[in-house]
Amino acid sequence: MKAAVLYSGGKDSTMAVYYAQKNNDDIVALLTMVSNNEESYMFHVPAIDMVDYCSAAMEIPSMDFVTEGVKEEELLELEAGISHLKDKGVEIIYTGAIESVYQRSRIDTICEKLDLEVCSPLWHKDPIEYMNQLVDLGFEVIITSVSAYGLTKDWLGRTITRDAIDELVELNKKYGIHPAFEGGEAETLVLDAPMYDRRIVIDDATIDWKVDSGTYNIEKVHLEEKYDYSID
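Given the sequence above, the corresponding structure tokens read:
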């Protein structure tokens, strides 16, 4: 089937790309909503400008739609974007939704209205199992923003590893932080994944910290070829 993925460059939407390819669907485009509202209820904001690099790394075209991010009104802009994709022959929309009923129900409603199928392959997946799956598959995921008590400044720019997951499990027990950040505790960016022909390398970045939250601002990056050094 011809597919499109609602895409932000973060771990969940990138994993949705992985599943779409695993299902042998033909990904026509990555649909990215660029929100002017940092507090958007629907859309990922930090490092959204990195989508172009993710798109290039996977050699899948991206399609950006700007939204003012006004609650509920942004859904009309999302519908316009999805409708545009349907006109291009898209039959199924993939999402990275895990537990957000708010997000999934609205996407499902839009797709039902447009007579499109929806696939949310991560829905209700065990968060710790999922985070470990990312590491096992070779996803290189960094944290681009934090906004929850317990996630300190040193988490910004940090790569998700087994050790990091173990710490998140402890933070979940102590503060209730969702291990996969489904409560908005943090946002992520995927620098490398099995579908990437090239990986994203960060050349320069700064940290903006405000009392108990912050962002990892990527200033300069480049794409680096991936080589197979294995010997037959």
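The first helix runs from residue 11 to 22. Try to locate this feature in the token string yourself.
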